[in-house]
Design a protein that fits this description.
The complex is a heterodimer. By secondary structure, chain A is of the alpha/beta class. Chain A contains nine helices and ten strands. Chain A has helices spanning 46-53, 75-80, 97-107, 112-125, 141-152, 171-186, 198-201, 221-228, 233-242; strands spanning 6-17, 20-31, 35-40, 61-66, 69-70, 82-86, 159-163, 190-194, 206-211, 214-219. Chain A has a six-stranded mixed beta sheet with strand order 6-7-8-3-9-10, with helices on both faces. A four-stranded antiparallel beta sheet of chain A has the order 2-1-4-5. In chain A, a hairpin with a 2-residue loop joins strand 1 (6-17) and strand 2 (20-31). In chain A, helix 3 (97-107) crosses helix 4 and helix 5 (141-152) packs parallel to helix 6 (171-186). Chain A starts with 5 loop residues before the first strand and ends in a 7-residue tail after the last helix. By secondary structure, chain B is of the alpha/beta class. Chain B folds into two domains: 4-221, 3-Layer(aba) Sandwich (Rossmann fold), CATH 3.40.50.300; 225-291, Alpha-Beta Plaits, CATH 3.30.70.100. Helices cover 33% and strands 27% of the residues of chain B. Chain B has eleven helices and 14 strands. In chain B, strands 6-7-8-3-9-10 form a six-stranded mixed beta sheet, sandwiched between helices. A four-stranded antiparallel beta sheet of chain B has the order 2-1-4-5, covered by helices on one side. Chain B is globular, with a radius of gyration of 23 Å. Mean pLDDT of chain B is 91; it is low at 306-320. Classes of the chains: A alpha/beta, B alpha/beta. At the A-B interface, helix 5, helix 6, helix 7 and helix 9 of A face helix 5, helix 6, strand 12, helix 10 and helix 11 of B.
């Protein structure tokens, strides 16, 4: 049996802002095709690390490869091979559903023919044909989030980063969104996801929990629960993060 | 004087073709911690803005402490505290300057009402000379709550105070609310997190501008019309897939490591689920009867209406 290849490799990642250390010697790998949960309290340093992995910010030090490319010298190649979606920023509100698809597909360099084919397929799969010419501002949040994920992977990236993709979404849509995440992973795209919903942490293949700029734990949900002798990921999280809240900043 | 903190009768508000609030009625008691539970876009913020006199309804009536939100808006504004969902303090003023500013415009001082905010403010006081815009999310939230409390309001409105906040800070925030409630303040709070419902005295479940239920969290759970099993096996993904196709059940939803399987009461036995899953090749099967959570209840109430109502929400506005 061959070991799955590591699609993200992070060795001794340090990121400092002045004398504040946001990422303090992070070391971890993400396996190809897995759903990797990246958890942590507010201010623990998650966003900083994600920005670096997406090629949007340089680390202070450390060795990092994303999708097989070096974070210092091959940032443009990284950007071409990843997708990104967050609750805060995903689609343009005053463009229509179809215009958003065409816009993102164009940015990722898809040909006119590919754009045609993929947008039709996407609209059909999401059952959004009737909403094709609606403005994003006028469709429900649940639809937006599903469309946003589809658009983020329209160029078949190797990895997709999902930053709190289900925040504020109703409970049924939240589950439908996770169905899409499972499908994405089954299609071979590695999923790197953050969330404040601890039941969603249970759906990840492996979970890391950041506390004060460091990775305090990293394992499968089952192993983490066993290690901390608790019944749920919520309890694992509370154990690790609770003692640290007063030291925030 | 009214015995209600808030009374709302047949309130409606539309934005163009979108009905943000659709004929809503409810009331909350003095000293009650009342929660509005629902996803983004359900109408929570519209309701809060009407009650805090910042927006006028199309139809219906709303009273805060017996005062009409339209005619008596000036009186109401002096009596209430409001923490909007979006951070709305002055980012260029320091922590202390923001607090002093809000105390001053309400004709009071930080010192006069310090007791009320002490628990919360001590946690950010070490950073009182820092600009509010430079605070972390959790700190901003504590400052916003302090500013909403500094004039000793009778009714406190908190619009999604815990959205985007991690599980630990959320728990601490609710502990703070319980202490405020014990001090006699009436609180109206909204949240998209279903698990926070159980921390309220009473809740209203809101979706697409309509109230689906108003009662105590315990009653919401009691009124759940279906039977419910918590089911697990070695392969959770396959389990969900198989249970979704299991005809005798009414619904199957993932809840972390287990699947909640709902059914018409009396129509399904543990052994039948067990046999079905064994037949499908599952191992380590466990089927247990459980009480529903608020999230189960919310989804049941949303039910098959979801797809339909979402279609209704799609407006007719199209690009030329």
């Amino acid at each position: 049996m061959t070991m799955p290849e590591n699609i993200i490799i992070v060795k001794d990642l340090v990121k400092k802002f002045g004398n504040f250390t946001a990422n303090d010697h992070l070391t971890f790998e993400v396996k190809k095709g897995e759903i990797f949960g990246f958890l942590g309290a507010n201010g623990a340093g998650k966003t900083t690390a994600i920005r670096i992995l997406c090629g949007l910010s340089y680390p202070t030090s450390g060795i990092l490869t994303v999708a097989g490319y070096d974070i210092y010298s091959q940032r443009e190649l990284i950007k071409k091979n990843i997708g990104y979606m967050s609750q805060k920023f995903s689609l343009y509100e005053d463009l229509t559903v179809f215009e958003n698809i065409r816009f993102y597909a164009g940015i990722y360099g898809l040909s006119k023919k590919e754009i045609e084919e993929r947008s039709e397929r996407l609209l059909e799969r999401l059952d959004l044909q009737t909403a094709r010419n609606k403005l994003i501002a006028d469709i429900p949040l649940g639809w937006k989030q599903k469309l946003a994920l589809s658009v983020a992977i329209i160029h078949d990236p190797k990895i997709v980063f999902l930053d709190e993709p289900t925040g504020g979404v109703d409970p049924i849509t939240r589950r439908q969104f996770w169905d899409m995440i499972f499908e994405t992973a089954r299609n071979g795209i590695t999923v790197f996801v953050t969330t404040h919903y601890m039941d969603e942490a249970e759906y990840c293949d492996r979970v890391s929990i950041m506390v004060d700029g460091r990775i305090a734990a990293l394992d499968t949900p089952a192993n983490l629960k066993e290690q901390f002798h608790v019944a749920s990921m919520n309890d694992v999280f509370l154990r690790l993060a609770r003692s640290k809240v007063t030291t925030e900043e | 004087m009214s015995s209600f903190a808030i009374e709302v009768t047949s309130l409606s508000k539309s934005y163009g073709p979108v009905r943000a609030l659709d004929d809503i009625s409810f009331s909350t008691g003095r000293g009650e911690l009342f929660g509005f539970i629902g996803p983004d876009g359900a109408g929570k913020t519209t309701l809060f803005r009407i009650l805090t006199t910042l927006l006028i309804a199309d139809a219906g009536e709303a009273r805060v402490e017996g005062l009409d939100v339209v005619h008596d808006y000036k009186k109401i504004r002096r009596m209430i505290g409001y923490m909007p969902g979006r951070f709305s303090l002055y980012p260029d003023l320091t922590v202390e300057e923001n607090l002093r500013f809000f105390a001053t415009i309400f004709g009071t001082t930080i010192e006069e009402n310090y007791d009320l905010i002490r628990d919360i403010y001590v946690q950010i006081e070490p950073f009182k000379h820092r600009r509010a815009g430079k605070l972390s999310g959790g700190m901003k939230q504590k400052l916003a709550l302090s500013c909403a409390l500094i004039h000793k309001p009778v009714v406190l409105f908190l619009d999604e105070p815990t959205t985007g906040v991690d599980a630990v800070s959320r728990r601490e925030f609710w502990e703070m609310l319980q202490r405020l409630k014990a001090g006699g303040i009436s609180i109206l709070v909204s949240t998209p997190y279903m698990d926070e419902a159980s921390l309220c005295d009473r809740v209203a479940l809101i979706q697409n501008g309509s109230l689906m239920a108003i009662s105590t969290p315990a009653e919401v759970v009691e009124k759940y019309p279906l039977g419910l099993f918590s089911v697990s096996s070695s392969n959770v993904y396959q389990l969900l897939h198989d249970l979704k196709a299991f005809q005798p059940a009414s619904g199957a939803f993932a809840f972390g490591q287990t699947i909640h399987l709902s059914f018409t009461p009396g129509s399904l036995k543990e052994e039948e689920v067990n046999a079905f899953l064994t037949d499908k090749g599952h191992t380590n099967i466990s089927v247990n009867r459980i009480k529903p959570t608020i999230e189960d209840c919310f989804m049941e109430l949303m039910g098959s209406e979801v797809a339909k109502s979402e279609y209704q929400h799609i407006t007719t506005k199209e690009r030329p």
